[in-house]
Amino acid sequence: MRMEVHVHGTVLLRAGTTTSQIEEALRPWLEYIDEDNLADAKSVHPDEPGVVFDKRRRVLEVCWTGDVGRSFHQIISGALASLNPFSEEAAAFEVSYYLEDGQDEFSMVFVGRAGGQRLFRSGADATGKEASALKGGKGVKGE
Fold first, then answer.
1. What kind and span of H or E run contains 79?
2. Residue 91 near residue 55, CB atoms below 8 Å
3. Interatomic CA distance for residues 109 and 121, integer angstroms
4. pLDDT digit string (tens) for 79-136?
């Protein structure tokens, strides 16, 4: 099943971090979207910058939308976790999934020394109750 996903976030990187280090950290994502480098990681929406490393400001900015499959969550979580050694401070990336059934899911992937992830599903279930928050793929009601 294919779906549209949007990845959004900014992380301040340690002094001396190079473009090649960032590209190597993000290699699983770049390979997934069949791109060789950050400059080619363009969003499907022309008004979004994609994946941009501003070396002068030491900032990696991501505003990227693409068409992905079910394995993307694992790919993006791992790729962003690979940025942990290069991050100057903690940052959060929001990953929003737009499903065919009209439901939206989003996860927060945290980058930094205490990186991790949280996955949430928006909308209501068949009983009309708000959908549960998901942690590591397991539902936790009432969060």
1. helix 72-81
2. no
3. 15
4. 999 999 999 999 999 999 998 888 899 899 999 865 444 444 444 333 333 333 333 3
Exposed e or buried b for every residue in 47-69, given b needs 16+ CB within 10 A?
ebebbebeeeebebbbbbbbebe
Q: Can you state the percent helix, strand and coil of the chain, rounding each to 5?
A: 20, 40, 40
Query: What CA–CA distance (Å, rounded) separates 94 from 97?
Result: 10
CA-to-CA dists, residue 27 to 36, 55, 69, 101, angstroms: 8, 18, 17, 31
Task: Look up the pTM and report it.
Answer: 0.78
- Supply φ then ψ for residue 68, to 5 degrees: -135, 170
Q: What is the percent of the chain with per-residue pLDDT over 90, rounded to a whole number?
A: 70
**DSSP string for residues in 2-58:** -EEEEEEEEEEB-TT--HHHHHHHTHHHHHHTT-SSGGG---SSTTS-EEEEETTTT
Does residue 76 contact residue 95 with C-beta atoms inside 8 Å? yes
Residue ranges per domain, the chain? 3-140
